[in-house]
């Protein structure tokens, strides 16, 4: 009896020890994950501060301008593009940044000095987007741990690739909807139950279904719900995101190329169907309500988006690309130095017979490859293409490349004893360092030097406005603004650049700082392929076709009052046209303007638009220094 009692106690003690060890292991994993998130957020915050260049207008005009308008009102000077006037965009994305503006506006009763508030308003979107970028990297790493194992070299390489990827450094902290879509996609993929694609064969040849249960606990079902909710928001934000989930769903149902047993019993299928309907309806309801509050009427932006950009083909108005654009430029730009490993991962993921991965991992990698193939194929049929449209594929790229990056640059040392664990070593170190150096050079140049002038010029104009009109820096502007001797709400800046070539109110900040820029509204009234669309010329094209002629239209002789600008902004190639117009024998001689070059900045080694070649220049007209401005 005594011996049996001791054995029982020993067994209980052993069980308790195993439970405690397991609990301790989970605790260590949680702490490690939390610490990693803190480090990644710190890196992305530094990243956000270092990015001081202009990339694409949507960073500002599809996020920050509507957010600014939402917080500060219609009289705040925010520029709402045609997409917002025709309800093509979901209000969810700008509402997030509006929350950041709202916090700054109401911090301590909004008693901070205007110039201090302006700095915080500039910083708020950067902090928020740094958080989203960090979550994208972190969830990509967590998904890699699910597939390759916690603490595995392949999983860690996913995080490191994300942090040193120059495209990520250049774009992830920018307020693009594509960047937020990438974050939502990475999170949704992490919570997705990859077991639905197939599990290990249980040896029962009579059944095509696995005996390993799924959706047996509330935790599993809640993860499915969270994945579906995040995916639904991503689809509402960018309708093309549906391609990702259609690919995964199609593969789960058809089981093409998949291995193992399918767990999609009737019960599990009905659970997934129920949750898709429930979560989709929930997100759709929230979206409809949010857009109803924002637009003032019931509307469904994704449907309008598809109508204008696909059915009406208005996206092509902003440029067309070759069918192979994403293959020849998109993937290489996203992957840069790891592109060969991405291609290797895409190819090897289809080789199921020689795969050493567990069934769940092997099937998940095939699904991620299928997602890449279907997205690239479908988007290649759309005439207007941009690299950022496939940015949500980056988590898949990094995960697919991870094993091959790891095996190429690392090695496991020989194990000397049964109790010792393998030690990770490095190989091809010079090549690794060279690749990292290339990434640093590319990321550093693009983030700090390339097309930096558009950011610098709005900062310069804002600073000039602060010096010239220190009494009119209220944010928001008072409804009963008074016109005094030193201020008459003059047109402070006129931008004669390609449309949307600089940030707007999110960087000009002060509502009293009036500015005007060339527009480029698409021909909404025309049909695809019509002669009207072919000959249509927007304001920007008309200006560059005949600069002096456009200036005559801008300031016609018979106008009751001339809205002359204090500063004119443009690339240096428009200088001759300006001096010709304002010369003593030119059509603008009556303005008595003597242009003076007061600021200019280098804009990078190359440009994708010849109209942006050369230095960006600010000319002072001197108009308000010599002539009393006409009251509006």
From TrEMBL:
Signal sequence range: none
MF GO annotations: alpha-1,2-mannosyltransferase activity
Cellular component GO terms held in the UniProt record: endoplasmic reticulum membrane
Pathway: Glycolipid biosynthesis; glycosylphosphatidylinositol-anchor biosynthesis
Keywords: Endoplasmic reticulum, Glycosyltransferase, GPI-anchor biosynthesis, Membrane, Transferase, Transmembrane, Transmembrane helix
Enzyme Commission (EC) number: 2.4.1.-
Compartment(s): Endoplasmic reticulum membrane
Transmembrane parts of this sequence: 147-164, 226-248, 269-290, 323-343, 364-383, 389-410, 431-451
Enzyme class, broadest EC rank: transferase
Membrane topology, record value: Multi-pass membrane protein
GO terms under biological process: GPI anchor biosynthetic process
Major subcellular site: endoplasmic reticulum
Functional note: Mannosyltransferase involved in glycosylphosphatidylinositol-anchor biosynthesis. Transfers the third mannose to Man2-GlcN-acyl-PI during GPI precursor assembly.
Family: Belongs to the glycosyltransferase 22 family. PIGB subfamily.
Name of the protein described by the UniProt record: Mannosyltransferase
Source taxonomy: Eukaryota, Fungi, Dikarya, Ascomycota, Pezizomycotina
């Amino acid at each position: 009896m005594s011996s049996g009692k001791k054995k029982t106690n020993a067994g209980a003690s052993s069980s308790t020890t195993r439970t405690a060890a397991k609990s301790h292991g989970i605790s260590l994993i949680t702490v490690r994950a939390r610490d990693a998130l803190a480090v990644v957020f710190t890196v992305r915050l530094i990243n956000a501060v270092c990015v001081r260049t202009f990339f694409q207008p949507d960073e500002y005009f599809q996020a920050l301008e509507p957010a600014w308008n939402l917080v500060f009102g219609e009289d705040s000077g925010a520029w709402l593009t045609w997409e917002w006037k025709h309800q093509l965009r979901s209000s969810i994305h700008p509402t997030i940044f509006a929350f950041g503006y709202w916090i700054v506006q109401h911090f301590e009763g909004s008693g901070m000095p205007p110039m201090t508030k302006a700095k915080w308003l500039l910083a708020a979107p950067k902090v928020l987007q740094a958080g989203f970028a960090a979550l994208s990297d972190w969830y990509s790493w967590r998904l890699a741990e699910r597939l390759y194992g916690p603490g595995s070299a392949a999983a860690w390489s996913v995080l490191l690739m994300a942090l040193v990827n120059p495209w990520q450094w250049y774009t992830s902290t920018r307020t693009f909807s594509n960047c937020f879509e990438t974050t939502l996609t990475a999170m949704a993929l992490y919570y997705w139950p990859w077991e639905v694609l197939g599990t290990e064969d249980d040896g029962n040849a009579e059944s095509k279904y696995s005996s390993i249960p799924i959706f047996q606990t509330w935790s599993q079902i809640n993860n499915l719900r969270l994945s579906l909710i995040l995916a639904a928001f991503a689809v509402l934000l960018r309708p093309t995101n549906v391609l990702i989930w259609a690919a995964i769903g199609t593969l789960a149902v058809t089981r093409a190329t998949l291995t193992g047993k399918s767990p999609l019993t009737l019960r599990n299928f009905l659970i997934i169907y129920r949750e898709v309907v429930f979560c989709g309806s929930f997100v759709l309801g929230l979206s409809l309500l949010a857009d109803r509050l924002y637009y003032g009427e019931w509307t469904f932006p994704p449907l309008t988006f598809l109508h204008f950009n696909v059915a009406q083909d208005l996206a092509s108005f902003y440029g067309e690309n070759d069918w192979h654009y994403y293959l020849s430029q998109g993937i290489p730009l996203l992957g840069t130095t790891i592109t060969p490993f991405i291609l290797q991962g895409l190819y090897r993921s289809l080789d199921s017979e020689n795969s050493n991965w567990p069934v769940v991992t092997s099937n998940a990698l095939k699904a991620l490859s299928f997602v890449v193939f279907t997205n690239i194929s479908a988007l290649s049929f759309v005439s207007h293409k941009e690299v950022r449209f496939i940015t949500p594929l980056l988590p898949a790229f990094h995960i697919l490349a991870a094993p091959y990056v790891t095996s190429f640059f690392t090695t496991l040392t020989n194990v000397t004893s049964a109790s010792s664990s393998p030690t990770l070593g490095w190989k091809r170190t010079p090549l690794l360092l060279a690749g990292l150096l290339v990434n640093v050079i590319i990321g550093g140049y693009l983030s700090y030097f390339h097309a930096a002038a558009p950011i610098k010029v709005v900062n310069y104009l804002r600073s000039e406005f602060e010096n010239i009109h220190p009494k009119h820096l209220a944010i928001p502007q008072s409804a009963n603004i008074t016109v005094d001797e030193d201020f008459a709400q003059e047109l402070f800046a006129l931008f004669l650049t390609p449309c949307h070539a600089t940030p707007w109110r999110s960087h000009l900040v002060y509502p009293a700082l009036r500015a005007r820029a060339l527009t480029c509204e698409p021909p909404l009234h025309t049909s695809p392929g019509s002669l009207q669309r072919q000959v249509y010329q927007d304001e920007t094209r008309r200006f560059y076709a005949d600069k002096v002629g456009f200036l005559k239209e801008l300031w016609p002789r018979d106008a009751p009052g001339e809205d002359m600008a204090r500063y004119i902004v443009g690339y240096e190639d428009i200088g001759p046209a300006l001096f010709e117009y304002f010369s003593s024998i030119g059509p603008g001689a009556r303005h008595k303007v003597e242009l003076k070059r007061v600021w200019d900045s280098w804009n990078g080694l190359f440009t994708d638009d010849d109209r942006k070649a050369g230095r960006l220049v600010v000319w002072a007209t001197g108009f308000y220094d010599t002539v009393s401005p006409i009251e509006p």
